[in-house]
Amino acid sequence: LSSSQARSEKGQVSQTLASTFAYMLAKGRKRVQSFLTAAHEWVSSLNVNRWPETEEGLQKIKELWLASFKKEAPTEDTWLELLRNGSAVGGYVANCSDYAASTGVPVPSLLVNGK
């Protein structure tokens, strides 16, 4: 199998996608919308219902993330921090889950603008 076909560590791609979304949300609504639109278009072109849990899926997240920065491109260190935070106990995903649980919303759930 090529590296693009090999499965990534279980859940890593999903966690990275959630962490990237949280990171982008902190950068501004328009940037998130651009990222989500591009992500939706790409996954729709694959005719699948779920983002691929492969190395290719992980690389596509990074590509779309970088493309969403028009002026100030983030460094490789920022990407690596994003990956670490995605799987860290106190990372972006855990922080978002804690926030949702504190509002009384069952977790996992989708919150938009805190609602």
Structure described in brief:
It contains 5 helices and no strands. With 115 residues, it is mostly helical.
Number of strands: 0
Broad shape: globular
| Spatial gap, N to C terminus | 43 Å
List the uncertain runs.
1-8
Beta content comes to under 5%
Range of helix content:
55-70%
Keyphrases for this structure?
single chain; 115 residues; mainly alpha; 5 helices; disordered N terminus
Topology overview:
Blueprint: H1 12-27, H2 29-45, H3 55-67, H4 76-87, H5 92-102
Describe this structure in words.
Residues 1-8 have low confidence and may be disordered. Helix content is 60%, strand content 0%. It has helices at 12-27, 29-45, 55-67, 76-87, 92-102. Helix 1 (12-27) packs across helix 4. The termini are far apart. It is mostly helical. It has five helices and no strands. The protein is globular, with a radius of gyration of 14 Å.
